[in-house]
Automatic annotation (TrEMBL), chain A:
InterPro entries hit by this protein: ABC_transp_permease
Protein name per Swiss-Prot or TrEMBL: ABC transporter permease
Species this chain originates from: Actinotalea lenta
PANTHER family assigned: ABC TRANSPORTER PERMEASE PROTEIN YPHD-RELATED (PTHR32196:SF21), ABC TRANSPORTER PERMEASE PROTEIN YPHD-RELATED-RELATED (PTHR32196)
The keyword Membrane is assigned to this record: yes
Transmembrane segments: 28-48, 60-82, 88-108, 120-148, 160-181, 188-210, 241-260, 272-299, 319-339
Chief location bin: membrane
Domain of life: Bacteria
Topology of this chain in the membrane: Multi-pass membrane protein
Automatic annotation (TrEMBL), chain B:
InterPro entries found in the cross-reference section: ABC_transp_permease
Disordered: annotated span: 324-344
Source domain of life: Bacteria
Principal subcellular localization: membrane
Pfam families noted in UniProt: BPD_transp_2
Location(s) in or outside the cell: Cell membrane
Topological category with respect to the lipid bilayer: Multi-pass membrane protein
Organism whose genome encodes this protein: Actinotalea lenta
UniProt keywords, alphabetically: Cell inner membrane, Cell membrane, Membrane, Transmembrane, Transmembrane helix, Transport
KW Transmembrane (keyword) present: yes
Protein name: ABC transporter permease
Transmembrane segments: 16-45, 52-76, 96-122, 134-153, 173-192, 223-243, 277-297, 303-321
Length: 363, 344
């Protein structure tokens, strides 16, 4: 135990040293700094309060297994918010993927036997991911081609995808998942759960896409200033389509994680995630009006809420007390932000001018 | 769009909604003779009452340019805590006093929303997401988590739950609570169309800055709006308790997006400044019509959710396509977001 605490302190001090170095060199992205601070504070608080329970490797591993699916869904909402939109259908898309994989696996297993189903597993997973991408593309179609406001388009598709999942499953929980997925949920590499590694990989990939590729630049400009984006020759149609496809893809991966944690799927799974995920994305410093978001900020917010959730259960507080904390943190951070913001002369406009320039070096 | 057609459509597509409802009704009547009975109608009315009260609150918030997702939490918080307190006190002051107390509790919770939103000018979706968590969490952690069944409810509440306005022998009944629901709907309609307060809400939703320039006290109007919406939500919560003859702290929360969908279907604009009580009533009725009677069309009831989703997409899709026709060149560009609340 003490070894671990030492290692932890070691990591902490190293992170802090690295952090202050970063602070000096670059303008710290809005949201990242305060989330890092909040994460360290909450972690320390619970570690001091209940070191035996909270710092227990089992608890740390559980956090590493529970957080990734929320993290991926948050990233999916984040990229939509980056363009000034939102995606309320992420959980429904993730469930769509999970249900597709589960029912295909069961169907193949029934028809050709268990071994054949395992053999087909990669293809089945691929089909599942494809379903997520297609659902995302449909969102993209509604937003970019038909021109429906994202919050309404995805409110509708959330109902539609969820409704179709209900129709498909008949409203019951279906079970079955390829053994590769199932074992993935319980495996760890060098003490780090595979699911955590998947989240980090996806996050790094997304950060690179957003900050280092033309697509990412277009997405950022589209959110910061749609008119300027259009005059710069950026096609809003393809940019928005790409955004919602990426959102669908990230949700699909989250759906695979659902299955790997628990080899069953239902239309209702994670229905409380929609609002939680929005809380995380906003806490992570994403501007709800678009144009600014950081992957790192959202990751830190995901971890912070996971730490608070685990810490609360370590303190034997209920899920409802956790809900209170969630609300208080959200409103507290927003109010603090606004009070600081009030010092500026003009009220906030969803334009570029009163926002820190997105730094490419977040990840 | 010719003038006559657009007049038939109504300012918020109410005409279109009436047409859709008529089509659905005719289809249902043709496919099942069981549809045109008093029982079906009364069941529709009964199941529409609670959603309608919530929808009226959502409507007012949408008109002001915001989005409220905390109303179910306010509703169950106010209703459950009031009922529990009344039972605990061993008193039975009568259903109307209980409803009044609940509405007072709701108004206080609404005040919390209003103050945070108006004072700090925060995005309404974010604030109400937070307060939803807080209200529900406080309710279950500190006030009570035990289901209160009909046997424990105050006698006067049970008496009201059993009172019918109209009884059709063998054909069901019209619940008495329809009277206060209609009164509330009419009051909200009058408030929105005939009072300075109501017009101010439209003005703020249309353009906050312009509203401020013409001398509307935006902060005060918003605070009162959320107080009112909180009280309305509490009334909806009490209505839910009375109709269901139970108080379950785990209920209601989770239905917020369905209600918002019905209001949007009713023609209210998510950007604020547009929406009507008539449209909202029609939107709620259409959703309930589908939820209650889809089976009559030979469609399994599991399709309810998907059907409402499709309708919502068709509704907002038609609006989006209609909105961009006048100046065809701006097809590709989203309207620039006017306020931070909009995108939230």
């Amino acid at each position: 135990m003490s070894e671990q605490r030492n290692a932890l302190r070691d990591v902490n001090s190293r992170v802090e040293a690295g952090w202050s170095a970063v602070l000096e060199r670059v303008h710290v992205a809005h949201g990242v700094g305060r989330m890092a601070l909040l994460l360290v504070l909450t972690f320390t608080f619970f570690a001091v309060q209940r070191p035996g329970v909270f710092l227990n490797p089992v608890n740390l591993t559980n956090m590493g297994i529970a957080a990734p699916e929320i993290g991926l869904l948050s990233l999916a909402v984040m990229i939509a918010m980056l363009t000034g939109g939102i995606d309320l259908s992420v959980v429904a898309m993730a469930n769509g993927t999970a249900i597709t994989v589960s029912s295909l696996y069961t169907a193949v297993g029934d028809a050709q036997g268990q071994a054949a189903a395992e053999g087909w597993a990669p293809l089945i997973v691929l089909v599942g991911v494809l379903v997520g991408v297609l659902l995302g593309a449909f969102n993209g179609f509604l937003v970019s081609v038909v021109g429906i406001t994202p919050i309404l388009a995805t409110l509708g598709t959330m109902q539609l995808y969820n409704g179709l999942a209900l129709v498909w499953t008949g409203g019951v929980t279906i079970s079955g998942a390829p053994s590769a997925l199932r074992s993935m949920g319980g495996t760890a590499v060098a003490g780090i759960p595979v699911l955590t590694i998947i989240l980090v990989l996806c996050a790094v990939l997304l950060a690179v896409v957003i900050n280092r590729t033309p697509i990412g630049r277009k997405v950022q400009l589209q959110g910061a200033n749609p008119v300027a984006a259009r005059y710069s020759g950026i096609s809003p149609r393809s940019t928005l389509m790409m955004t919602y496809v990426i959102s669908g893809l990230l949700s699909a991966v989250a759906g695979l994680l659902f299955l790997s944690r628990n080899p069953s799927a239902s239309a209702d799974y994670g229905s409380s995630y929609v609002l939680l995920v929005i809380v995380i994305v906003v806490l992570g410093g994403t501007n709800p009006a678009g144009g600014f978001a950081t992957v790192l900020g959202v990751l830190l917010a995901t971890l912070t809420l996971q730490v608070v959730a685990s810490g609360f259960s370590a303190l034997r507080l209920s899920a409802y007390e956790y809900a209170i904390a969630q609300g208080v943190i959200l409103i507290g951070v927003m109010v603090l932000d606004q009070v600081r913001f009030r010092r500026r002369p003009l009220r906030r406009r969803p334009g570029m001018q009163d926002r820190p320039v997105p730094t490419p070096a977040e990840k | 769009m010719s003038g006559r057609l657009s007049r038939l459509r109504g300012p918020n597509n109410e005409g279109l909604l009436v047409a859709v409802i008529l089509v659905v009704v005719v289809a249902m009547a043709l496919s099942s003779p069981a549809f045109f009975t008093a029982g079906t109608f009364f069941a529709l009315v009964r199941s529409s009452m609670v959603p309608l009260i919530f929808a009226l609150g959502v409507l007012m918030v949408l008109i002001s340019g915001g989005i409220d997702v905390s109303f179910p939490a306010i509703a169950i918080f106010a209703a459950y805590s009031t009922v529990k307190w009344v039972i605990g006190a061993g008193a039975d002051p009568g259903p109307w006093v209980i409803i009044a107390i609940a509405m007072l509790v709701g108004a206080v919770l609404g005040l919390v929303n209003g103050v945070v939103i108006a004072r700090f000018r925060l995005p309404t979706l974010i604030v109400t997401l937070g307060t939803q968590s807080i209200f529900k969490g406080v309710l279950i952690s500190y006030i009570g988590s035990v289901y209160i069944s009909a046997a424990d409810l105050p006698d006067s509440v049970n008496a009201l739950a059993g009172s019918h306005l109209l009884d059709v022998s063998g054909g069901g009944y019209l619940h008495f609570m329809i009277v206060p629901v209609v009164v509330v709907a009419v009051l909200v309609a009058l408030l929105l169309s005939r009072t300075i307060f109501g017009r101010s809400i439209y003005a703020i939703g249309g353009d906050t800055e312009a509203a401020r320039r013409v001398g509307i006290d935006v902060v005060r109007t918003q605070v009162w709006l959320y107080v009112l919406v909180g009280a309305l939500a509490a009334f909806g919560g009490m209505l839910y308790v009375i109709l269901g003859r139970n108080a379950n702290p785990q209920s209601i929360v989770g239905t917020e997006l369905d209600i918002i969908a019905a209001v949007v279907l009713g023609g209210a604009s998510i950007f604020g400044g547009r929406g009507s009580v008539l449209g909202t009533v029609l939107g709620v009725v259409l959703v309930q019509l589908i939820n209650n009677n889809l089976v009559l069309l030979g469609i399994p009831s599991t399709w309810q959710r998907a059907a409402v989703g499709i309708l919502l997409l068709l509704g907002v899709g038609a609006q989006a396509l209609g909105a961009r026709r006048p100046n065809g060149h701006s097809v590709d560009v989203e309207p620039p977001l006017e306020r931070e609340e909009v995108a939230a």
